[in-house]
Amino acid sequence: MTDAECLSGLLDRKPELVHIHRPIHGVPAVLPVFVPDLWAAILYEYEASVRIEESDFPIRPGFASIIPPGVHRVFRFSGRSVHRVANFDMPRRWRGRLVRPVMVDTREQFLRLRDAFDAALGLLATHPRRAEVKVWDMLLTLAECPLVHGGARPALHPALRRAVSVVESWLSQPFGVAQVAREAGISHNQLIRLFQKEFACTVVAYVRRRRMQLARHWLIHSDLPLKVIAARVGIPDPHLFNKTVRRQFGCAPSDLRRRAARRAVQP
């Protein structure tokens, strides 16, 4: 069965739309992303590149991607980049099915898809079922678009792969770079070089970025108390959590949650 057939079969029932937004990227220029529990459909209007698992894909205006949960990707931006992202969940019977990420070229469909996305963004807070139907139709259209084939690139260094896995499993607890290096079976300095080469940042910066990505995810997509979110991302001290969120997003955690809620109800 082809990727398109797998995707079309997956979409025989309406997905549950969880969040839809237009994030602005570009700083930092290299952005690792990992969402463990939600699918993502992304529409692009800029030029960049993204590594999805072991393949490199170009990003061009009019391209789009559908990415299953638990898939690592690393974006490389060339400047200010705004894209449209819909995060959704699939019917229970489809959870756990093996579906590969896809990149497609929407071509003449792009303007219609963009309009459908923006309409769903305006409807989600007041008419969530109508928003879900629009996103469902958008996904079905994406499943029929021609695939963009990525270029295979050398797999991540085995030690780096182990290190990333260790970091992901330890995000809810305090740990140091030396502990990660020990678990990965390499020296502290070698670990730093591998992270710098692949992610263009230090290990500490990578861990902070991942913790803040998860914090933002739970602040926007859940009603969890701030202290619970802080503990889940390994920063249980409320003052330090507040300070770290402010440094990353320019506002306090509660303000970030309120702003996201206001954007969700804007037409």
What would you say this structure looks like, in words?
The relative contact order is 0.13. By secondary structure, this protein is of the alpha+beta class. The mean pLDDT is 86. α2 (110-123) packs antiparallel against α3. β5 (48-52) and β6 (55-59) form a beta hairpin. The protein has helices spanning 3-10, 110-123, 128-144, 158-170, 177-184, 188-199, 203-221, 226-232, 238-249, 253-265; strands at residues 16-21, 24-25, 30-33, 39-43, 48-52, 55-59, 63-67, 73-77, 81-82, 84-89, 102-105, 151-152. The chain has two domains: 3-152, Jelly Rolls (Sandwich), CATH 2.60.120.280; 158-265, Arc Repressor Mutant, subunit A. Helix content is 46%, strand content 19%.
What's the count of strands?
A: 12
Strand order of the largest sheet: 1-10-4-7-11
Secondary structural class: alpha+beta
β content, as a range?
Answer: 15-25%
The coarse silhouette is globular
What's the CATH architecture of the largest domain? Answer: Sandwich
Quaternary form: single chain
- Might you state the CATH topology name of the largest domain? Jelly Rolls
The domain tally reads 2
Q: Distance between termini?
A: 40 Å
Instruction: Please identify which CATH superfamily of the largest domain we are dealing with.
Output: Regulatory protein AraC
Q: How would a crystallographer describe the biggest sheet?
A: 5 strands, antiparallel
